[in-house]
Amino acid sequence: MFYDCEEIESSANGLGRIERELPDWLDADLAILGEPTAGLIEAGCQGTLRVVIRTGGTRAHSARSWLGDNAIHKLAAVLDRLAAYRARIVDIDGCQYREGLSAVRIDGGVAGNVIPDAAAVTVNFRFAPDRSPEQALVHVHEVFDGLDVQIELTDSAAGALPGLDRPAAAELVGAAGGVVRAKYGWTDVSRFAARGIAAVNYGPGDPNLAHTRGERVPVQQITAVTEVLRRYLTV
Q: Peptidase M20 dimerisation domain spans which residues (predicted)?
């Protein structure tokens, strides 16, 4: 099954449209998400949320900067908190999920001679599946507690626990060699898990190269994954 918009906000996800309009397509014992996993089974997935953290100030001419209050400078405190953040590592059913809290975008500035009165940083929190999106948002607020900022939630999606105790998933793990690790990233395993359907991430390609200039898929991994899936589906 192919669908669009998996990489953007969850409200636009094409699988959600299938779920709403053609739910019988999703009746299954096991869902296999063709994510890049280097030919290993990656279990569950992290949850994700994005917030925009805004600062305010007073606009002024930069030649008289003391008359203004620079909103961009105030982002330094936010970035300091992010730089000092220590990610939690959680072991769930033998899979280690490492969390991450990262600035992914900064916006601000009026003109080259103006002290800005508004600035914002977008922060992405990738959290272990033992947290709910609500708990994750509380944690984000705790990280930035005490700063003079406004925090706006713009997108969130729950993670998924490994779920490898389901027979169909356990059989695929065996067919793929028995090596399992946690999925770093959010995938539609979460949507299937919410429907009570066992789901795993399994496909060719190194996930450490995702969204880099060196992203590629080795032919030998495509061949190996194809052979495993053919063997699993024809037993």
A: 47-145
